[in-house]
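Curious: why these numbers?
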Amino acid sequence: MTGPLERVDDFPVVGVVGGGQLARMLQQAAIGLGVQLRVLATDRNDSAGQVISDVRIGHHDDPVAVKEFADGCDVVTFDHEHVPPAILRNLIDHGVAVRPSPDALIHAQDKAVMRAALTEAGLPCPKWAILDPGTEADVARSTLDQFGERAGWPIIMKTSRGGYDGRGVWVADDLGCALDIASSEELIDGAVWLLEEKVDFTAELSAQIARSPHGQAVAYPVVRTVQTDGICTEVVAPAPEVSSDHAIAAQRIALQVAQALDVTGMLAVELFDTSSGLMINELAMRPHNSGHWTIDGAVTSQFENHLRAVLDLPLGSPKMTAEHAVMVNVLGTQRQGLYATYKHVLARDPQLKIHMYGKTARPGRKLGHVTAVGSDVEDCRDRAHHGADYISGVIDE
């Protein structure tokens, strides 16, 4: 742990709970704005801890550690959504601005709460129901059977809390399978089973907006995302083969979500594009993987606009700086010595942008991302995939 840094002039201190790659990339934006970041990390070698000088060591669910970390911060924001609401309300009671607020953040922490709020607001969602893990066997069987009949088998079963990157999500082909999942999988405290219709979609889209406390909001171009085993592997901006009217409809949904839930900062609304229209899949109230392309492909990155929003500064332009941008995640394999790959990748394509997160490689882990921008979307896809695949060891030439 380092000691407190002296404040420079009247520039604010922004506290970021969580030491992952999102906090790391917030530092890039903070440097330009002259804003000082402080991060609450579990280890000095966490992704953000390597690049942010003011690091406090502690856990996000420790009220004492969070309170000590927040002392002296002008605003507290997040690298992840997992801080208990009671801890955040305690910060507010002590005069710390928390953005997004715990009343908004709960909708990203608990998918069941999210579904109820979005449905009440009249926003498009898949068919859904709740099953409490303590429900008696006969009642659980009836609930699952009735929902399966209403939504059609197979159905999706999610833990309402704690799942990410494909974890905490199961597909139940029939009633027997659903009963086996419900009886064999243990949920974390406070979680329930969220039962959802398995949506037949043509594409997965993400609509990102930034919203400030006084209500200013800007919308980024809607992007297409590709998920592999539950992990985002590719983002294409703007979403190909999506009409301007359809993209505007997605942006409008994101703006409606932000207003209904009073979100401050970046909001990502993940959407299913179906033959009958758009449906909301999940929400993230922070910078999001689907917006990493904005570092190299937009006038104002999602990270800078998140800082602007939580500080209630005027928001920056979300416009693209090129016709197309494609981001591909670098996922861990057995390859070591990733830095040695740079000579080939950068010599082959000097316009490619590499962003690595300072993480130890292990299979499936997000180690970084590669972005290509240009006038030809397929060329951008080929270039970004080649760079990411060579770094991770999927290809060797």
